[in-house]
């Protein structure tokens, strides 16, 4: 029977079959300070060891400041968490890239940069945006802390097989439309829980034409559609990205790996449980209007009314969202003023994202009513941006240029919003209170965020492309 | 991980009649700075439960704060409960607050698995069955609900609904097994798998 990419990666990792469940081998494990302390504490309590320390890599990203490299810059609780990670990595022989290290960064940005993620791997992290790494054709998914402990102790996880979903984005992507718009449009179409229980494979001409960084943006938000993971079959774009990266195979091992990676695609005639088709030409720059990522519209579409929905649950959540977001049905987004702009996160904190935002930032100054920050996803992104002079472009336009970290994506640090703030954000979640209690988040692409900063309200970024 | 098993639980329920309750709501990020698994219950549903940041002023309109739902050990919710982040702090907070089971129309995948690993029983019922449960609790907040895991039923008054749960999840909840201990017994299989891995991995 013809196999899907997911079938191939899954079958290659079965250590043992335990009834309906499979014991799956984990090739790469990424850890950070927030979801690992209790896992190590659990190991220590039972006197258990880390089975394969060299397969786990740690970084600090969530609880750190983006204004200061001091480990206690965000207070004693955050500092204790960071020190705990350092101590655990030290005791168990795990490579850690701490605050201030040149390879430090948001776990889903620095991992791929170092070549830690390769096609056909199984990758886990105590973080739901682990889905990002599916962009390499790796089966990558977020896990809870008990599972982090399980992976540390056994290098395996018990899993049951998910359903499969194929999402084809057909045709060429129009000018001004980005990977972020693709994934938001997908979530808008299938809904915020539309892929629950599924592993998605993204395919079609528009997906194949994306760079590696853009593919990561798409896969990153698979979880926002409820999916277990999102995959894109590896190709030359993938292989060229990986070649010569620090952890990528070298010499003869590279040739062997490459030969294997080339077998990782969905075979003709393989079947999926669900198939979704989208036309790239239909995608406009996206802006979320509500409090879940499925509540999203094109920038020129009026804010919907609860009555526009048929499902009673959607009607109810639209009512609640409009009230939380302080929006009225029929309102134009171009009339909605923002007072904060956040450019960064594991969704859109890579160099290409910053280039796209800088391209727009060059054309004006941040509106006097807006506070705008740019937070590179990693130390490497920061250095590259500075080498290209992007930091200067941002600063001259009135954006703050920060140190790498998760920052305002979730505000476990000193970058938070207060009640009533309205933010155009390149992150991935617009849940109530995500960026601060009572704060309103609108998810957009980096170029759209930069345009909102200049305008003080949402604007169609296509007006900024010559 | 708890090693006490779950078989049957009877208690009163708190209704949270909402879809898409995300883990940022269950336990907001400012409470994720702990390094232990305990003490998250007091921050459960912080933004909804308290009118102030210091948690001094309970919101009288929020279900969990209503006198009639005090002592509830079963939470009722709607579709896609626990969506969003993978934070296991969410089931830790629910369990620490005193919940033994969450009954909802559906659950987000990672959250569901996290519940299983923390002896918090996730029960998925149809939306009609959930309507009946919400109605029953609305009519009489003191009505007791029984979740019987071996029988896979939820019962209240003279109504009984059966629910689905994967056999291995059920066994783990009932026996309260140490999942890592079980896997460590398969060390030979893991060794054999590793021996066959290509050099570059
Ligand atoms: S940037 Fe945001 S979504 Fe990504 S890992 Fe950090 S907190 Fe999570």
TrEMBL record, chain A:
Top-rank lineage group of the source organism: Bacteria
Domain Aconitase/3-isopropylmalate dehydratase large subunit alpha/beta/alpha: 7-456
Pathway: Amino-acid biosynthesis; L-leucine biosynthesis; L-leucine from 3-methyl-2-oxobutanoate: step 2/4
Co-factor binding details: Binds 1 [4Fe-4S] cluster per subunit.
The keyword Amino-acid biosynthesis is annotated on this UniProt entry: yes
Molecular function (Gene Ontology), one example: metal ion binding
Cofactor(s) required for function per UniProt: [4Fe-4S] cluster
CDD domains noted in UniProt: IPMI
BP GO annotations: L-leucine biosynthetic process
Keywords (A to Z) from UniProt: 4Fe-4S, Amino-acid biosynthesis, Branched-chain amino acid biosynthesis, Iron, Iron-sulfur, Leucine biosynthesis, Lyase, Metal-binding
Pfam (any one): Aconitase
Residues reported to bind [4Fe-4S] cluster: 346, 406, 409
Gene3D superfamilies referenced in this protein's UniProt entry, alphabetically: Aconitase, domain 3
InterPro entries: 3-IsopropMal_deHydase_lsu (IPR004430), Acnase/IPM_dHydase_lsu_aba_1/3 (IPR015931), Acoase/IPM_deHydtase_lsu_aba (IPR001030), Aconitase_4Fe-4S_BS (IPR018136), Aconitase_4Fe-4S_dom (IPR036008), IPM_dehydratase_rel_enz (IPR050067), IPMI_cat (IPR033941)
EC number: 4.2.1.33
Top EC category: lyase
Catalytic activity: (2R,3S)-3-isopropylmalate = (2S)-2-isopropylmalate
Protein purpose: Catalyzes the isomerization between 2-isopropylmalate and 3-isopropylmalate, via the formation of 2-isopropylmaleate.
Record-stated family: Belongs to the aconitase/IPM isomerase family. LeuC type 1 subfamily.
Subunit structure: Heterodimer of LeuC and LeuD.
Record-given protein name: 3-isopropylmalate dehydratase large subunit
Lineage: Bacteria, Pseudomonadati, Pseudomonadota, Gammaproteobacteria, Alteromonadales
Automatic annotation (TrEMBL), chain B:
GO CC term, one of those recorded: 3-isopropylmalate dehydratase complex
Domain Aconitase A/isopropylmalate dehydratase small subunit swivel per the UniProt entry, residue ranges: 4-126
GO MF assignments: 3-isopropylmalate dehydratase activity
Enzyme Commission number(s): 4.2.1.33
Catalytic activity: (2R,3S)-3-isopropylmalate = (2S)-2-isopropylmalate
Pathway: Amino-acid biosynthesis; L-leucine biosynthesis; L-leucine from 3-methyl-2-oxobutanoate: step 2/4
Sorted UniProt keywords: Amino-acid biosynthesis, Branched-chain amino acid biosynthesis, Leucine biosynthesis, Lyase
Bilayer-spanning residue ranges: none
Annotated InterPro entries: 3-IsopropMal_deHydase_ssu, Aconitase/3IPM_dehydase_swvl, AconitaseA/IPMdHydase_ssu_swvl, IPMI_Swivel, LeuD
Pfam families: Aconitase_C
Function recorded in the entry: Catalyzes the isomerization between 2-isopropylmalate and 3-isopropylmalate, via the formation of 2-isopropylmaleate.
Family: Belongs to the LeuD family. LeuD type 1 subfamily.
Subunit structure: Heterodimer of LeuC and LeuD.
UniProt name for this protein: 3-isopropylmalate dehydratase small subunit
Gene source species: Alteromonas hispanica
Originating gene: leuD
